[in-house]
Amino acid sequence: MKKSFLKIFPVACCLALLPLLASAQDKATMAIGPVKPTPSLLASVSSKTMAGTDSGGKKEVMTFDTKQELNRVIESLDVQLTDRVNATRKFDVVGRSDLADILKEQDLGASGNVDAKTAAKAGKVSGAKYLLIATVDDFQDYIEKAAFEGTGQTATRRVFRFSIVAKLYDSASGKLVESANFQTGNDEFKQIQTDRSYSVKSGELSDEMLVAIARSMAEKIANHFADTTFPPKVLVKRDNTVTINRGEGGGIAAGDLFNVYALGEEMVDPDTKESLGREEVKVGKVKITQVGAKTSQAEILEDTGIDKGAVLHKAK
Prior knowledge:
Elements: H1 2-25, E1 28-32, E2 36-37, H2 39-44, E3 50-53, E4 59-63, H3 66-87, E5 91-93, H4 99-105, H5 116-126, E6 130-148, E7 153-170, E8 176-184, H6 186-196, E9 200-201, E10 204-205, H7 207-229, E11 234-238, E12 241-244, E13 257-268, E14 275-291, E15 296-303, E16 311-314
Parallel strand pairs: 1-5, 1-6, 2-6
Antiparallel strand pairs: 3-4, 4-6, 6-7, 7-8, 9-10, 11-12, 12-15, 13-14, 13-16, 14-15
Helix pairs in contact: 3-7
């Protein structure tokens, strides 16, 4: 009897672990392609410092070595994007392996577009369910200097723009799942500099500032696709508080407001028969009060049916 028990026990343990193993295997995998600028952008950025005036002689525009700045931002973003996607805890990021060579076959740098065959091939090689492609399509950084006629006074204004188009593909079918444009500009540039005390030396961005800009953009991209693929959900409701499945690195902070939605029936397009997702009915509003490593807590502000499994979308 004792020997039989010893034989059965390991089998029973394995069977008990099957649900946990299946759950771990269900976590989505993502391959991230190298970040590239469009050829037209690369050709337009200046590799030399220049100065000039407008036709009236009243405005002086100074540009920097924007080609070097662009390359430094892209290099940083390439690393930061992998880190930020991993920080969402929603995807297992797989190694690039031969991904770059596969994407190069289609000259990805020309447009950032990937066809179904290329996406499926990349997914098969990398073992990823999703393929994320990010293409930089705009980068501007210069100082505009204006002279006030009759006063002899001048004023300067820094103009900064950075734009990326990011696309998420289903590697099994090659279908484009989601596409979005992400931008940062003067206001956010100033906010990053103020919050983190990063300096601008001789008109050029410091290495720390470039990394901060890349990190901010990477967070936007990673959290957008995490939220569209796996929207935040209510794990537990207790009294006037809910616990949600988002923590540090999940793009939320204390004070953020979220609308809460109950999930209804699946909606199917009558023409294409394509699933349009499940119906969402607003049932409340919550405010984030505490952000933990893996979960966060929120205070319930409105409640007409909040329950476990309800999804959250940031209130605008």
